[in-house]
Design brief:
metal-binding; single chain; manganese; NUDIX_hydrolase_dom; eight-stranded mixed sheet
Protein backbone atom coordinates (compact mmCIF):
# COMPACT_ATOMS: atom_id res chain seq x y z
CA UNK A 1 0.00 0.00 0.00
CA UNK A 2 1.34 3.41 -0.93
CA UNK A 3 0.37 6.68 0.70
CA UNK A 4 1.46 10.27 0.20
CA UNK A 5 2.05 13.14 2.57
CA UNK A 6 0.33 16.52 2.00
CA UNK A 7 3.57 18.03 0.72
CA UNK A 8 3.83 15.32 -1.94
CA UNK A 9 0.18 15.76 -2.85
CA UNK A 10 0.88 19.09 -4.52
CA UNK A 11 4.31 18.62 -6.07
CA UNK A 12 5.58 16.63 -9.01
CA UNK A 13 8.63 16.97 -11.23
CA UNK A 14 6.59 15.84 -14.22
CA UNK A 15 4.76 19.20 -14.12
CA UNK A 16 7.83 20.82 -15.66
CA UNK A 17 7.05 18.99 -18.90
CA UNK A 18 3.73 20.84 -19.28
CA UNK A 19 4.35 23.87 -21.43
CA UNK A 20 0.91 25.28 -22.16
CA UNK A 21 -0.58 27.39 -19.38
CA UNK A 22 -4.35 27.05 -19.51
CA UNK A 23 -6.64 29.25 -17.47
CA UNK A 24 -9.49 27.41 -15.75
CA UNK A 25 -12.79 28.99 -14.84
CA UNK A 26 -12.15 27.83 -11.28
CA UNK A 27 -10.10 30.21 -9.18
CA UNK A 28 -8.84 29.88 -5.60
CA UNK A 29 -7.95 33.56 -5.10
CA UNK A 30 -9.97 35.84 -2.78
CA UNK A 31 -12.36 38.33 -4.39
CA UNK A 32 -14.57 41.25 -3.44
CA UNK A 33 -16.70 41.08 -6.56
CA UNK A 34 -20.32 41.18 -5.41
CA UNK A 35 -21.52 39.73 -8.71
CA UNK A 36 -20.34 36.24 -7.76
CA UNK A 37 -21.60 36.30 -4.18
CA UNK A 38 -24.26 33.69 -4.93
CA UNK A 39 -21.52 31.19 -5.79
CA UNK A 40 -19.43 31.83 -2.71
CA UNK A 41 -21.91 31.68 0.13
CA UNK A 42 -20.85 28.15 1.08
CA UNK A 43 -17.25 28.18 -0.15
CA UNK A 44 -14.08 28.59 1.84
CA UNK A 45 -13.18 32.31 2.02
CA UNK A 46 -10.11 31.80 -0.20
CA UNK A 47 -11.89 30.03 -3.06
CA UNK A 48 -14.59 30.82 -5.59
CA UNK A 49 -15.90 29.58 -8.89
CA UNK A 50 -17.02 31.52 -11.93
CA UNK A 51 -19.11 30.20 -14.78
CA UNK A 52 -19.15 26.46 -14.28
CA UNK A 53 -22.56 26.26 -12.62
CA UNK A 54 -24.37 28.09 -15.41
CA UNK A 55 -22.50 26.05 -18.00
CA UNK A 56 -23.63 22.73 -16.54
CA UNK A 57 -27.17 23.79 -15.67
CA UNK A 58 -27.88 25.18 -19.13
CA UNK A 59 -26.52 22.36 -21.28
CA UNK A 60 -27.70 18.83 -22.02
CA UNK A 61 -30.25 18.69 -19.24
CA UNK A 62 -32.07 15.98 -21.20
CA UNK A 63 -29.23 13.61 -20.29
CA UNK A 64 -30.41 13.43 -16.69
CA UNK A 65 -32.80 10.49 -16.60
CA UNK A 66 -34.32 8.89 -13.54
CA UNK A 67 -32.06 5.94 -12.74
CA UNK A 68 -32.67 3.52 -9.88
CA UNK A 69 -30.18 3.50 -7.03
CA UNK A 70 -29.16 -0.07 -7.89
CA UNK A 71 -27.81 1.15 -11.23
CA UNK A 72 -26.38 4.47 -10.08
CA UNK A 73 -22.88 5.45 -8.93
CA UNK A 74 -20.91 8.65 -8.43
CA UNK A 75 -17.24 9.65 -8.50
CA UNK A 76 -15.55 12.69 -6.98
CA UNK A 77 -13.43 14.98 -9.16
CA UNK A 78 -11.63 16.57 -6.23
CA UNK A 79 -9.69 19.63 -7.38
CA UNK A 80 -7.11 21.65 -5.49
CA UNK A 81 -4.57 24.34 -6.26
CA UNK A 82 -0.96 23.24 -6.80
CA UNK A 83 2.14 25.14 -5.82
CA UNK A 84 2.26 26.94 -9.18
CA UNK A 85 -1.44 27.83 -9.19
CA UNK A 86 -2.44 24.92 -11.41
CA UNK A 87 -5.53 22.79 -10.85
CA UNK A 88 -4.79 19.26 -9.76
CA UNK A 89 -7.10 16.27 -9.32
CA UNK A 90 -6.84 13.41 -6.83
CA UNK A 91 -6.74 9.86 -8.21
CA UNK A 92 -6.39 6.40 -6.71
CA UNK A 93 -5.05 3.02 -7.76
CA UNK A 94 -7.65 0.38 -7.02
CA UNK A 95 -6.67 -2.47 -4.74
CA UNK A 96 -5.52 -5.72 -6.33
CA UNK A 97 -7.92 -7.44 -3.88
CA UNK A 98 -10.98 -6.09 -5.70
CA UNK A 99 -12.97 -8.40 -7.96
CA UNK A 100 -13.58 -5.69 -10.57
CA UNK A 101 -10.91 -3.58 -12.27
CA UNK A 102 -8.13 -4.47 -9.79
CA UNK A 103 -5.06 -2.25 -10.02
CA UNK A 104 -6.68 0.30 -12.31
CA UNK A 105 -6.53 4.07 -11.76
CA UNK A 106 -9.85 5.56 -10.71
CA UNK A 107 -11.51 8.58 -9.18
CA UNK A 108 -12.77 8.06 -5.61
CA UNK A 109 -16.34 6.83 -5.83
CA UNK A 110 -18.75 3.94 -5.95
CA UNK A 111 -22.37 2.82 -6.01
CA UNK A 112 -25.13 4.80 -4.36
CA UNK A 113 -26.33 3.55 -0.97
CA UNK A 114 -29.85 3.78 0.37
CA UNK A 115 -28.83 6.39 2.94
CA UNK A 116 -27.21 8.70 0.35
CA UNK A 117 -29.29 11.81 -0.18
CA UNK A 118 -27.99 12.39 -3.72
CA UNK A 119 -25.05 11.80 -6.07
CA UNK A 120 -22.89 14.34 -4.25
CA UNK A 121 -23.42 12.50 -0.98
CA UNK A 122 -22.42 9.24 -2.64
CA UNK A 123 -19.20 10.67 -4.08
CA UNK A 124 -18.10 12.37 -0.85
CA UNK A 125 -18.98 9.35 1.30
CA UNK A 126 -16.96 7.04 -0.96
CA UNK A 127 -13.99 9.43 -0.88
CA UNK A 128 -14.13 9.42 2.92
CA UNK A 129 -14.26 5.64 3.04
CA UNK A 130 -11.54 5.08 0.43
CA UNK A 131 -8.92 7.74 1.18
CA UNK A 132 -9.99 9.42 4.43
CA UNK A 133 -11.04 12.68 2.78
CA UNK A 134 -13.28 14.39 5.33
CA UNK A 135 -16.51 15.84 3.95
CA UNK A 136 -15.84 19.11 5.80
CA UNK A 137 -12.82 19.72 3.55
CA UNK A 138 -14.73 19.36 0.27
CA UNK A 139 -17.00 22.00 -1.24
CA UNK A 140 -19.19 20.37 -3.88
CA UNK A 141 -19.65 22.67 -6.86
CA UNK A 142 -21.75 20.80 -9.39
CA UNK A 143 -22.45 17.49 -11.12
CA UNK A 144 -21.47 16.78 -14.71
CA UNK A 145 -23.42 14.78 -17.25
CA UNK A 146 -23.63 11.08 -16.36
CA UNK A 147 -21.46 8.43 -18.02
CA UNK A 148 -22.25 4.77 -18.57
CA UNK A 149 -19.75 2.19 -17.33
CA UNK A 150 -18.92 -1.15 -18.96
CA UNK A 151 -21.22 -2.91 -16.49
CA UNK A 152 -24.03 -0.46 -17.39
CA UNK A 153 -23.91 1.65 -14.24
CA UNK A 154 -24.88 5.30 -14.58
CA UNK A 155 -21.85 7.14 -13.18
CA UNK A 156 -22.28 10.79 -12.16
CA UNK A 157 -19.07 12.86 -11.89
CA UNK A 158 -19.26 15.27 -8.94
CA UNK A 159 -16.91 18.28 -9.00
CA UNK A 160 -15.59 19.42 -5.62
CA UNK A 161 -12.95 21.86 -4.37
CA UNK A 162 -10.36 21.06 -1.71
CA UNK A 163 -9.31 24.57 -0.73
CA UNK A 164 -7.38 23.60 2.42
CA UNK A 165 -5.19 20.84 1.03
CA UNK A 166 -2.76 21.10 3.94
CA UNK A 167 -5.49 19.72 6.22
CA UNK A 168 -5.99 16.59 4.13
CA UNK A 169 -4.24 13.62 5.75
CA UNK A 170 -4.74 10.62 3.42
CA UNK A 171 -5.79 7.37 5.10
CA UNK A 172 -6.15 4.56 2.59
CA UNK A 173 -8.67 1.73 2.90
CA UNK A 174 -6.38 -1.23 2.11
CA UNK A 175 -9.32 -3.32 0.90
CA UNK A 176 -10.17 -0.80 -1.80
CA UNK A 177 -7.13 1.40 -2.54
CA UNK A 178 -3.43 0.59 -3.05
CA UNK A 179 -2.19 4.11 -3.77
CA UNK A 180 -3.23 7.76 -3.98
CA UNK A 181 -1.67 10.42 -6.19
CA UNK A 182 -2.61 13.60 -8.03
CA UNK A 183 -2.14 14.96 -11.54
CA UNK A 184 -2.61 18.33 -13.27
CA UNK A 185 -6.11 18.52 -14.73
CA UNK A 186 -4.99 20.13 -17.97
CA UNK A 187 -2.95 17.05 -18.95
CA UNK A 188 -6.22 15.55 -20.16
CA UNK A 189 -6.37 18.14 -22.94
CA UNK A 190 -2.83 17.55 -24.23
CA UNK A 191 -1.32 15.09 -26.67
CA UNK A 192 1.74 14.63 -24.48
CA UNK A 193 1.78 11.25 -22.72
CA UNK A 194 -1.52 10.36 -24.42
CA UNK A 195 -2.37 7.48 -26.72
CA UNK A 196 -5.59 6.33 -28.28
CA UNK A 197 -6.72 2.72 -28.71
CA UNK A 198 -9.53 1.90 -31.12
CA UNK A 199 -11.81 -0.92 -29.99
CA UNK A 200 -15.00 -2.60 -31.11
CA UNK A 201 -18.18 -3.48 -29.27
CA UNK A 202 -20.45 -5.50 -31.52
CA UNK A 203 -20.82 -3.50 -34.73
CA UNK A 204 -19.74 -0.28 -33.00
CA UNK A 205 -16.28 1.21 -32.91
CA UNK A 206 -15.11 3.39 -30.05
CA UNK A 207 -11.96 5.00 -28.68
CA UNK A 208 -10.21 4.27 -25.41
CA UNK A 209 -7.97 7.15 -24.28
CA UNK A 210 -4.93 6.29 -22.16
CA UNK A 211 -2.65 8.76 -20.36
CA UNK A 212 0.66 7.91 -18.73
CA UNK A 213 1.81 9.85 -15.69
CA UNK A 214 5.07 9.62 -13.77
CA UNK A 215 5.18 10.95 -10.20
CA UNK A 216 8.13 12.59 -8.47
CA UNK A 217 8.91 9.17 -6.98
CA UNK A 218 9.20 7.66 -10.48
CA UNK A 219 5.95 5.75 -10.08
CA UNK A 220 4.18 5.37 -13.42
CA UNK A 221 0.39 5.21 -13.62
CA UNK A 222 -1.81 4.44 -16.63
CA UNK A 223 -5.05 6.46 -16.63
CA UNK A 224 -7.60 5.11 -19.08
CA UNK A 225 -11.12 3.86 -19.61
CA UNK A 226 -14.03 5.62 -17.93
CA UNK A 227 -11.74 7.66 -15.68
CA UNK A 228 -9.89 9.16 -18.65
CA UNK A 229 -13.17 9.92 -20.45
CA UNK A 230 -14.61 11.70 -17.41
CA UNK A 231 -11.47 13.79 -16.88
CA UNK A 232 -11.23 14.76 -20.57
CA UNK A 233 -14.80 15.99 -20.35
CA UNK A 234 -14.25 17.79 -17.04
CA UNK A 235 -11.07 19.50 -18.26
CA UNK A 236 -12.80 20.59 -21.46
CA UNK A 237 -15.55 22.29 -19.45
CA UNK A 238 -13.38 23.82 -16.74
CA UNK A 239 -10.72 25.15 -19.13
CA UNK A 240 -13.21 25.88 -21.95
CA UNK A 241 -10.78 24.13 -24.34
CA UNK A 242 -11.12 21.19 -26.69
CA UNK A 243 -8.50 18.41 -26.45
CA UNK A 244 -5.49 18.78 -28.74
CA UNK A 245 -5.84 15.12 -29.75
CA UNK A 246 -8.48 13.78 -32.11
CA UNK A 247 -11.72 12.35 -30.78
CA UNK A 248 -13.11 11.29 -34.13
CA UNK A 249 -14.69 8.18 -32.62
CA UNK A 250 -16.92 8.17 -29.52
CA UNK A 251 -15.62 6.73 -26.29
CA UNK A 252 -17.38 3.72 -24.79
CA UNK A 253 -19.43 5.62 -22.22
CA UNK A 254 -20.80 7.99 -24.86
CA UNK A 255 -21.66 5.02 -27.06
CA UNK A 256 -23.48 3.20 -24.29
CA UNK A 257 -25.42 6.30 -23.30
CA UNK A 258 -26.48 6.92 -26.90
CA UNK A 259 -27.73 3.34 -27.21
CA UNK A 260 -29.64 3.57 -23.93
CA UNK A 261 -31.27 6.84 -25.02
CA UNK A 262 -32.38 5.21 -28.27
CA UNK A 263 -33.80 2.23 -26.44
CA UNK A 264 -35.54 4.43 -23.88
CA UNK A 265 -34.03 2.46 -21.01
Amino acid sequence: MACIAPSELITCEADQKLTKKLQPIINFSPTKDEEITEYTDNLHQNSYIVGIKEYIINRNLHLYKVISREKRAAVLICLFEGLEGELRVILTKRSMKLSTHPGEVALPGGKMDEEDLDDSATAVREATEEIGLKSSLVQVITNLEPFISLNLLTVVPVVGLLSRVEEFKPVLNADEVDAIFDVPLDMFLKEENHRRVEKEWGIWKYVCHIFEYETSKQEIFQIGGLTASILIHAASIIYQETPSFSEYLPDFSQLQFTLNMKDGC
